[in-house]
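Study this protein:
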Amino acid sequence: MRAHDDTSGQARLRVAAEVLGHLADPTRLHLLRLLSAEQDVTSLTAQVDASRSSVSQHLGRLRLAGLVQARRDGRRMLYRITSDHLADLVAEALGYADHAVFGIPHHRHRVTEESPAAEMSSPESAAPATVERWTTAG
């Protein structure tokens, strides 16, 4: 069972690193932030500092990576982010950047809570017994 856990853990780290790699480009990060609502290339191009061609290429990469979904509406393609987890990750990254850019102290208060998954997990499960959550001071 341990070898399976290690393989799953490595796959999980690999996927997370790939996702973070896609977020490493400022234009893609901006596009993902904007795509909580469906938008087409024209409206996205008006909101980011990139050409229409560049926006289309970034959207193509994000779509191939499974981070953005596209659907046809007549002659237009509409794009949106695929996951609330990804939207939250983008928001957290931008929140961290706000702290760094504006000199806001970072949060370091940790609260430990029981995880609902912990109650259902077996001893061999990789699920943690508790979940750590960071809170803001004050």
Summary: Residues 2-23 form the longest helix (22 residues). Residues 107-138 form one domain.
